[in-house]
Amino acid sequence: MNLQRAVAFFTILIVVLIVAAAVMVLGPPGRERAAALDRQRIDDLRHIEQDLHDEYDTTKQPIPNRLGDPKRDPVNGAPYQYRRIDATRYVLCATFDSPSPKTGDRIVDDSPFWRHRAGRQCYSFDARRESLR
C-alpha cells in the first residue's frame, strides 16, 4: 500500500467515524426532522392561542366559532383542529410525530403544558385565563 492510498483510507475512516459520532449524539436525521416539525406544531398552536386570548382580552367578545385563517400542519397542510366549547373555552388539537422529549434529553419544551405523546393531542383553553406564552 503506497502512502497516497493510506492517506485516502485514513481520511475516509475519519469521515465515517465523525458521521457515526454525529448520528450517535444527535440521533438519526429522521428523528431530528420529526422533532423540528413537532416544535413547529407547538409554535403554531401557541400563536393560535395567543391570538385568540389577545382578541378576547381586547374586545371581550365571545371567541369565534371558526378560525378565520387557520394555521396548517407543516407536513400534510391540514388546518389544526379547533373546537369552540362556549363563549370563552375552546380546544386545539394537532397530530405529533413523536412524544415530547423527556427531561435530560437535548431538547425539552419550555412549558410542561405543551407536553405531548406521539399521535393526536388536544389542549383545552379558557380565554378568560392568562395566555400560556
Describe what you observe in this structure:
The chain is an alpha+beta fold. The chain has one domain. The protein contains 2 helices and 3 strands. It has a 3-stranded antiparallel beta sheet, covered by helices on one side. Strand 1 and strand 2 form a beta hairpin. The N and C termini lie far apart (63 Å). The mean pLDDT is 84.
Count up the helices: 2
Oligomer: single chain
What does the largest sheet look like?
3 strands, antiparallel
Give the termini distance in whole angstroms.
63 Å
Average residue-wise pLDDT = 84
Estimate nothing, just give the exact number of structural domains.
1
Unreliable stretches covering 5 or more consecutive residues: none
Structural class: alpha+beta
The rough form would be described as rod-shaped
* Binned strand content: 15-25%
Number of strands: 3
Helix/strand order? HHEEE
How would you summarize this macromolecular structure in one to three sentences?
The protein is α+β, with helices and mostly antiparallel strands and 133 residues long. The chain is built from 2 helices and 3 strands.
